[in-house]
Amino acid sequence: MKGVLDRIEDGLAVILIEEKGEEFTLREQDLPVGSKEGTWFKLSYKDGNYSILAIDEKATKEQSKTSEKLLEKLQNRKKESKFKRK
Q1: Residue 83: inside a domain, yes or no?
Q2: Domain of residue 69, CATH code
Q3: Cross-strand bridge partners of residue 33
Q4: Which of 19, 49, 59, 75 could be joined to 40 by an S-S link, Cβ 3.0–4.6 Å?
Q5: What tens-digit pLDDT sequence spans the chain (86 residues)?
Q6: Which of 50, 42, 36 lies closest to 6 in space, CA to CA?
Q7: What 3-state class would DSSP assign to 19?
């Protein structure tokens, strides 16, 4: 199972589990070293609790590339207005 670090608020890290449509929190200091927003993790689920097994480097890199491509596409759009002046 995989999850992504969505945000950190007041020392709590919010991890989204996309395939389950759920989220869980843990203390920021309990994150693996090098974690930042957008980092993907391999997760385990036991006795009603999620835990991080490891950073999923492959998924993190793939999502980062996808985000970069989308941003580039948006930046390269024509910057002209759709409205014509008279």
Answers
A1: no
A2: 2.30.30
A3: none
A4: 59
A5: 999 999 999 999 999 998 889 999 999 999 999 999 999 999 999 998 999 999 998 888 888 777 777 777 777 776 666 666 66
A6: 36
A7: coil
